């Protein structure tokens, strides 16, 4: 099974508008970060997308992705869903909408905001057939598990995908590390974790919490993501222990 980090930046990306790179070296291409999203691919070639960032079109072109089997959402914050319209090309040639999955709470907020995506409009068909994650255990040859994680005042959905005897966990946008999360992600081959900055944040994991997460879950590899402009790739790479990697746009890893 393969992981593609499509985007690993925070909500404003790196650099921020105004060409603000913060502490990130603009000469290092690994510091240029679009908004967070990943894709997992099985050995059979089946592909699941997690989140539709505002940079989705750019990410699909950069990684030469022209086909998806389904899309999953973590929550409805703009940096995770406002690229939803770029799913339209994946609807072309299909007899029905692209399968999509989210928690019931996320669905209740996505549907009114993007009604044309889920219902169709003005003679255009729907783009996505949206279903609840409740009772979903398998899809397109992947084992799929999910749990709700604290993200400040709301919840964000974490995912564990299994295929070909391997596992990939995705836990972005969480503000507290719970025992349930540790058990859920235990022993994954790859763990992608929220890691906004070094300083504590009210709705995101910081570096200390992300490293604690990696250690307690005993993940074989951990990828730090949702990184802001204070997290220079080269500098951060020198700080972290073996088995932990700084994510970058276009990173490909085999589980």
UniProtKB/TrEMBL annotation:
Ranges of residues in domain Metallo-beta-lactamase: 34-226
InterPro entries per UniProt: Metallo-B-lactamas (IPR001279), RibonucZ/Hydroxyglut_hydro (IPR036866)
Name of the protein in its database record: MBL fold metallo-hydrolase
CDD domains the record matches: metallo-hydrolase-like_MBL-fold
Pfam families: Lactamase_B_2
Alphabetized PANTHER family for the sequence: HYDROLASE C777.06C-RELATED, HYDROLASE C777.06C-RELATED-RELATED
Species per Swiss-Prot/TrEMBL record: Aurantiacibacter sediminis
Gene3D superfamilies (alphabetical): Ribonuclease Z/Hydroxyacylglutathione hydrolase-like (3.60.15.10)
Source organism, top-level taxon: Bacteria
């Amino acid at each position: 099974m393969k992981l593609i980090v499509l985007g690993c930046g925070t909500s404003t990306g790196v650099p921020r508008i105004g060409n603000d790179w913060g502490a990130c070296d603009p000469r290092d291409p690994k510091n240029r970060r679009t908004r967070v999203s990943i894709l997992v691919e099985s050995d059979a070639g089946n592909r699941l997308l997690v989140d539709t960032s505002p940079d989705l079109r750019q990410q699909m072109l950069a990684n030469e992705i022209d086909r998806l089997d389904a899309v999953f959402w973590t929550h409805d914050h703009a940096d995770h869903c406002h690229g939803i319209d770029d799913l339209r090309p994946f609807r072309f040639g299909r007899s029905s909408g692209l399968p999509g999955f989210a928690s019931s709470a996320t669905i209740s907020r996505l549907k009114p905001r993007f009604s044309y995506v889920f219902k169709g409009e003005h003679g255009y068909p729907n783009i996505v057939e949206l279903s609840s994650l409740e009772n979903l255990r398998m899809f397109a040859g992947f084992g799929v598990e999910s749990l709700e994680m604290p993200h400040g005042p709301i919840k964000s959905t974490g995912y564990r995908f299994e295929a070909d005897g391997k596992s990939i966990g995705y836990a972005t946008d969480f503000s507290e590390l719970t025992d349930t999360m540790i058990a859920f992600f235990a022993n994954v081959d790859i763990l992608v974790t929220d890691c906004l900055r070094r300083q504590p944040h009210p709705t995101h994991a910081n570096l200390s919490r992300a490293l604690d997460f990696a250690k307690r879950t005993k993940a074989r590899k951990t990828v730090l993501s949702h990184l802001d402009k204070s997290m220079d790739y080269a500098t951060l790479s020198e700080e972290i222990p073996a088995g932990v990697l700084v994510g970058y746009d276009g990173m490909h890893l085999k589980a």
